[in-house]
Structures are given as C-alpha cells and as structure tokens.
Design brief:
104 residues; four-stranded antiparallel beta sheet; mainly beta
Amino acid sequence: GQHGQGAYAVEVLADGSLLAGGGCGRAVSLARYTTTGHLDPGFGTNGLSRFTPVDPSHGFDMAIQSDGRALLAGVTGLSSSIKLGITRFLSNGSVDPSFGNRRT
C-alpha cells in the first residue's frame, strides 16, 4: 500500500492476543487479533479502531500500559509542519478522551 497504510507495530498481550498498530489513510489505527488470528469482534468496530485527526497521521510505535491501554506514537501533520502524535486507546478499542490535547 501507500505510505502510512499498514501495521508498523505489533504487541502480544498477556492472553496471547495481538495488537497491531499503524495507519490507514489519514487515520491512526489499532487492530486486535484473537489467538486464532481473527479480528476480535469485542474490540473497537469488528476488531478495528481508528482515530482521524485534522491532519494526516501515521502510527509507528506502540507500548501497552499495565492497565491494558495502548499508546500508539507516530507523526501527524503535513510535510511543512510534521509533529509527534500520540494516541491512547482503551482496552476495548475506543480512543481515550482523557489523554492529551485531542484535535478532531
């Protein structure tokens, strides 16, 4: 695919499921796969969670907090003003509204 589409970071969770983070179009995205390799329907929308900020964004690295929340870090902005962007997702796949200064 084109730049920014695909998974750039993968983490194995304690239960053996996988979180894959990256970009999809203008959004940062996170997918959870079951231990059998299927998208987890109990996560986000049919296994996928996306956050589309004002500027195009791409997630390149991920960390899992002890409480199960995932931090997806990458870049946001246009070529003339690229900035660090971090999005935190709750364990159910929704974007954490209490984290940072979100621009939507």
